[in-house]
Design goal:
The chain starts with a strand and ends with a strand. Helix content is 0%, strand content 44%. The protein is mainly β and 113 residues long.
């Protein structure tokens, strides 16, 4: 078990780590780095039922919005891109075989912003 104690000294904040052996390690943070670029917040869509008939013959499906990354689930199992399905457009994908009537098809995706 260990406990961290923050100690404010004259010029710096030091963290002292107290371990079960009562050994003290003093960690002094280095200088602040440069500010990185501002990131963007992408929208994640979860458990969407894509458009397209699940009828044992249809292989083409469409999401409600364009995506950057797509995860496809058939009957709760994640499908593999390239072997189970292929992305065919900004908002569409095609199965290599048609899902059977009664199968449950859902997708998760990162929406294009």
């Amino acid at each position: 078990m260990s406990t961290e104690l923050d100690i404010l000294t004259e010029d710096t904040l030091e963290t002292r780590l107290v371990t079960e052996l009562n050994v003290f390690e003093i960690v002094t943070p280095g200088p602040q780095g440069i500010q990185g670029p501002v990131g963007t917040l992408d929208s994640v869509v979860l458990a969407e039922v894509p458009m397209g008939d699940v009828n044992s013959s249809n292989t083409d499906f469409t999401t409600a919005a364009a995506f950057l990354k797509l995860w496809v689930y058939l009957n709760g199992l994640r499908m593999n891109p390239g072997s189970d399905y292929n992305v065919t457009g900004a908002d569409s994908f095609t199965f290599t075989y048609a899902p059977s009537t009664g199968d449950t098809l859902i997708v998760d995706y990162v929406e294009t912003t």
